[in-house]
Specification:
It contains 6 helices and 2 strands, in the order αααββααα. It is mainly alpha-helical.
Length: 194
Amino acid sequence: MLTYAQMLALHDAALTDAGRLVEQAADGDLHRATPCDDWDLAALLSHMIGQNNGFAAAVGAGPADVTAYAGPEVTPENAVGEWDASAAALRTAFAQADEEATVHLAEFDSQVSPALALGMQLLDTVVHAWDVAASLGTTYRPAEASVGFVLDSARQIAARPGGTPGVFAVSIGETGGDPWADALRLLGRTVPTA
């Protein structure tokens, strides 16, 4: 099991990785399709930025209204700036969080620990970084410790009654091969075979 400090380091690296992909995306067509149904690249980036801002507000300032999670309209001109600001706010919020506190996530109407909120964000960041990379025609793989964490989390999500709808796409299931590909499949991603 990862400690809070270990998750912070992994999440920091994931945010940096995602930031590089946002920079690449901003240089291209933000209307291209993504692995996320009904979201083009601009909508996906907006979701990611909104999640960063919403979690930063909930963890840092206390209960945040569901509107805090609403992402901005993303354009090639503002994508990098919006991402960088949201990532900085999220890093600060988690770094300064009281690990014994309770975080209210209005989006899910639930009370969680900062560690659980951080785990949710780690999973969301690396999976959506892969989504952005896939839409750009490239690949993304996080640190192996993140892969293991996401695979464990994806198994738990896929095992929930009703599966993953509302959070991620319907699970495709594991093949027992590459753990990163299996984590993505469990969260409904179609992963190209080598």
